[in-house]
Predict the structure.
Amino acid sequence: MNQPAPTIFDKILSGEIPSYRVYEDDHVLAFLDIGPLSSGHTLVIPKERGAFLHQLSEASSAAIGRVLPRLCRAVMKATGATAYNILQNNGTAAHQEVLHVHFHIIPRHGESGLGIGWKSSSLEAPAAQKLVSRMQQALAEEGA
C-alpha cells in the first residue's frame, strides 16, 4: 500500500508545528483544533499515517477506539457540555481536508458545535438484501 503524502498532522506529530496536546500514547495523539466549531473541539489522530480509516492497522484502530470514550468524558467535564458529535470523514468528497485519519470531538454549547443536514431516503427490502449479501461477501473475502 502506498504511503500518503505528509500532512500538517505529520508536522504536529514530529513537534515541528506546536499544538495544544490533550493526550498522547504510543498510537494516538489528541490535540485542540485551532479552528474550533466550539470550545473544546478536539482532534484525535493515529500516529500511523493513513488517509482513510479503512487503511489503518487493527492496532491503530483499536487504540483510537479505546481512547475515544475517555477523551469524550474529558471534553465534557472540562467544557461543561452535555452533548457532543464525533465526526470522521474519509476522502475529499466526504469533506476531509487533511488526508490523515482524524476524529473530531465537537462539544455542543447551545448553538455552537456541528450543524448537520441529513437527507435520508428509504431502504427497500430487495435492495437491502442485495447490499447485505455483497457486504458479507466482502467481509468473507477479508477473513472477517
In short: The chain has one domain: 8-116. The longest helix spans residues 58-79. The chain has a mean pLDDT of 92. Strands lie at 21-24, 28-32, 42-46, 84-87, 103-107.
